[in-house]
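Assess this one:

_____
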Amino acid sequence: MRVLGLMSGTSADGIDAVLVDFKGDPSKPKWKILNAGSYKYPSSTREKIIQVGQGLKINSKDWLELAEEITELNAFAARACDPNSTAEVVGCHGQTLFHRSVKKSKRGGSLQILLGPLLANILNQIVIYDFRSKDIASGGHGAPLVALVDEALIGRLYGWRGVLNLGGIANLTIIPPKTGIEKTSECLGWDCGPANSLIDLAIQECTNSSLKFDENGSLASLGIPKLENIEKWLMDPFFHLEPPRSTGREQFGSQYLQERKKELGDISKEDLLSTLTTFTASIISQDLDNLFRLKNIRLIELLVAGGGSGNLFLMSQIQKLCCGVHVRQINEIGIPSQFREALVFATLSWWNFLGKKVNPEYITGANKSILYGVRVDP
């Protein structure tokens, strides 16, 4: 069955589209990517998405027009990737504009902006969208949903396997071994904290928006990280919450960056970027140490996906700090790093079409099995 997956993450760079052919057992499918492409948001759209996500107030008319624009851009991305509309189902995540973590007795929340019925009618195809709200209504965080699918797409090894996504926010999937006493263990997953969000904001501020990101980590590699500050930042209570846990730009965005910059004082942009990049790597390392301390789980491999996997300095810091783990890019096992999340939402859409429910207890914390997504016919 052919499914088209559409995804735009917290970095709000644009839309990734992937056309996939699925066959066989939904839990261990055979899949093949038939086409893929990325479509950048117009700079004005990206700016508005990020500003609204950081608290900019806009009126109802502007909300509606932003929702229409994002829907129309997703339709454009779908047609560019699958010009003959061969997909039986289109799975579209929409654009996250706000995420609220579950806290004690307070329900979580997550807002993805997309007009599903409009997209279905523009494309004249079945659309699955709104993937997070059922999970949140069932007491879950609604994130990270990629961890629900990783095991099915990637499979198991003879030891514990990790999958790290470095988008605006970093998240981890922990896949159990296929043999031995631990083979009956459940897949785990959680949001770690900031990945590219602080780095990207910082370089935009430093360069007056002439640079959007630190290509290859080249500027960070010229600086010296302030390790004492990083040590202090790692004590933030969020990083010591036991999973399930989730976060977003609301917590690790502009305000957080300004507070950290104030603590660092007057330093060069290279030192600032080096510190923020090493901070991201240190969060991952600390999470893996906590995983061993609390659950006696030690990874033998860490597959890295997302935009941050192209940051050579960040990758080298992760390798350096995550001792004893074989760190490599997810591309090496046949999953294109950039399209991993679009592939995940294509899979969830296929599962929705088949009526396959997923138990998210050890990933999002939701209290029942869920059929992810809402289906709308044209």
